[in-house]
Amino acid sequence: MTEIHERLAGDCIRLGRLQLSHLLLMNDSNYPWFILVPARDGIREIYQLETGDRRQLLDESCALSEFIMRSYKGDKLNLAALGNQVPQLHLHHIVRYASDPAWPAPIWGRHPLRPYSASAINQIRNLFSGAGLAGYVAAADA
């Protein structure tokens, strides 16, 4: 199993796995914010993935995007693979609303993080486990 970078591990809640990627929830209830981390060592950029893994990451990203936009009924979905502070390849999926605290600006550094309550985390886990995101398997430690 590929290790998740310590910054991501500290900032996120591990929800589970897809075929290629770990699925994380950023522990900030200001926004529905999910992160895919391909389970490949030493990869910093998408182009460094093998061709099949690149296709798989895109498929997982699209499936996750469709699932969270349908589930959270957002106005816009922001995708980003910045990696300026965390060198491990990871892809942010952030549901945005015209009414969210940072709209229409980027979310980074705009507002203090608001951690999820235990019950809210359980609701999100149940959403993913019960609604059928293709290929999703809940984390064993969840």
How much helix is in the residues?
25-40%
Order of helices and strands: HEEEHEEHE
Number of domains: 1
Give the rounded overall mean pLDDT.
94
Query: What is the beta-strand fraction?
Result: 15-25%
- Low-pLDDT residue intervals, each spanning 5 or more residues: none
Overall 3D shape: globular
Reported by name, the CATH topology is HIT family, subunit A
Briefly summarize what is shown.
This protein is an alpha+beta fold. The chain has three helices and six strands, in the order αβββαββαβ.
Describe the secondary-structure layout:
Layout: H1 6-11, E1 12-17, E2 21-26, E3 33-38, H2 51-72, E4 76-80, E5 91-96, H3 118-131, E6 137-138
Antiparallel strand pairs: 1-2, 1-6, 2-3, 3-5, 4-5
